[in-house]
Automatic annotation (TrEMBL):
GO biological process per UniProt: L-methylmalonyl-CoA metabolic process
Keyword Cytoplasm found: no
Keyword Metal-binding included in the entry's annotation: yes
InterPro entries given in the database record: Glyas_Bleomycin-R_OHBP_Dase, MMCE/EMCE_epimerase, VOC_core
Phylogenetic lineage: Bacteria, Pseudomonadati, Pseudomonadota, Alphaproteobacteria, Sphingomonadales
UniProt xrefs under Pfam families: Glyoxalase_4 (PF13669)
Cited PANTHER family: BLR5325 PROTEIN, METHYLMALONYL-COA EPIMERASE
Full protein name: VOC family protein
Organism: Novosphingobium flavum
PROSITE patterns: VOC
Keywords, alphabetical: Metal-binding
């Protein structure tokens, strides 16, 4: 089988500038490049933190994120891509940092199988952060 590796996650937002600010201020991503995608009528940016990347799109006239896509249990009831997830060392420390930054914490899970949380970005898109259980 051909080898491949993760490259980026794509997210559509109503304001590219607001999303660049949010991903930088809240999660520490920096703009790698900005560009126009003529075929989609999109202004876009690739933001990066280490090896992690988000490709952010602003398309004039795009429909807003439906309310059921903003809450993890409801979102699972619609087929399609759901979210991207990142590992954190300490969920409680991460949550305290995110709350101090004013992040929108959508959902927190503290179960025997593991702990995690979902944030909503400035457009309501879900991003998961997981603390893996110690063996």
């Amino acid at each position: 089988m051909a080898e491949f590796a993760f490259h980026h996650c794509g997210v559509s937002v109503p304001s590219l500038d607001a999303a660049i600010e949010w991903y930088g201020r809240v999660l520490g991503f920096a703009v790698e490049k900005r560009f126009h995608i003529a075929a989609a009528g999109a202004e876009a940016a690739m933001v990066r933190k280490g090896q992690l990347r988000f490709e952010i799109f602003e398309v004039k006239g795009a429909a807003p994120l439906p309310d059921d896509r903003r809450h993890p249990p409801a979102d699972l009831k619609t087929h399609g891509n759901k979210h991207v997830a990142f590992r954190v060392e300490d969920l409680e420390e991460f949550l305290a940092e995110m709350e101090a930054k004013g992040a929108d914490v959508a959902f927190v899970v503290r179960e025997a199988f593991g702990k995690g949380c979902f944030l909503r970005d400035c457009a309501g898109n879900l991003i998961e952060f997981v603390e893996e259980p110690t063996p």
